[in-house]
Amino acid sequence: MTGPIRGFVTFVALTCALTACDGSVGGNPTPVSPSGSTPTSAPSSQSDTPLAGMSPCKTLDQALAGQGYSPSTPSIADPEHACDADKPGQDNLGLVLQDGQSYDANLSNPSKDQTGHVRARRAILELEPTGQEGLCAVRIEVKPKSRALVSASLAPGTTDAACTRARAVAEAVELLLPKTS
After folding, report:
1. pLDDT digits (tens, 9 = 90+) for 106-137
2. Which of 29, 43, 56, 113 could make a disulfide contact with 21, Cβ separation 3.0–4.6 Å?
3. Contacts of range 71-76, beta carbons closer than 8 Å, 24 or more positions apart
4. Measuring CA to CA, which residue among 59, 103, 107 is closest to residue 82?
5. Which neighbouring-strand residues pair with 127?
6. How large is the average pLDDT for residues 45-60?
7. In terms of pTM, does the model score above 0.70?
8. Which stretch of 33-47, 127-141, 164-178 has the lowest confidence by average pLDDT?
9. Helices assigned H by DSSP within the chain
10. Are the CB atoms for 16 and 5 separated by under 8 Å?
11. Buried b (16+ CB within 10 A) or exposed e, 56-77
C-alpha cells in the first residue's frame, strides 16, 4: 500500500477513534465530559451500543466478497474498530465501526460535505477529508448514536471516482449493519 493511501486510512481511524468532541455538521464542536467524570445517565440497554460485537474486518470482507480485494486487516491506529482492504496499485477501502459517536460529529471539511442517505439511513459524503484528490468517505448513521465510516482512496484516481466507490461499498456495508429504529 502506498504512503498516501496508508496515511489516509490512518487519518480516518485516528479521527474516529481518538475524538474528544461532539458537534454539529457546522463545525462548532462541544467538548464531551472528561473520562473521569460521572456520566449523567447509565446506558439503558444493549441498544445503546448497536455495533458491539461486530467485527469491522469481517463486515468489510463480507461487503467486498468476490471483488478481488485482499482480506481486510485491522488498522494500526484502532485495531478493534477499524480495518482496511486493498487491491494493490488500484484502491484502498476502510471501515470504522464506532459506538457512541454521531455520524455527523468531527467532520474534517464541512464546506465540502454532502448530506444524504445510504438506503434509509442518514449519511454524509466527505469529499477529500484530508485535502487530497482521490479520497472520499461515507459516514452512515446507526441509531441511537453510533456510526459506520466507509472510506475509499484511489491511486491513481479522482475524488469523484473515490466517492462512487465509497458509496457502493457503503450500500453493501449498510445491509450488514444492525437494524435500529
Report:
1. 998 888 999 999 999 999 999 999 888 999 99
2. 29
3. 75/9, 75/10, 75/13, 76/10, 76/13
4. 59
5. 136
6. 87
7. yes
8. 33-47
9. 3-17, 56-63, 159-174
10. no
11. bbebbbebbeeeebeebebbeb
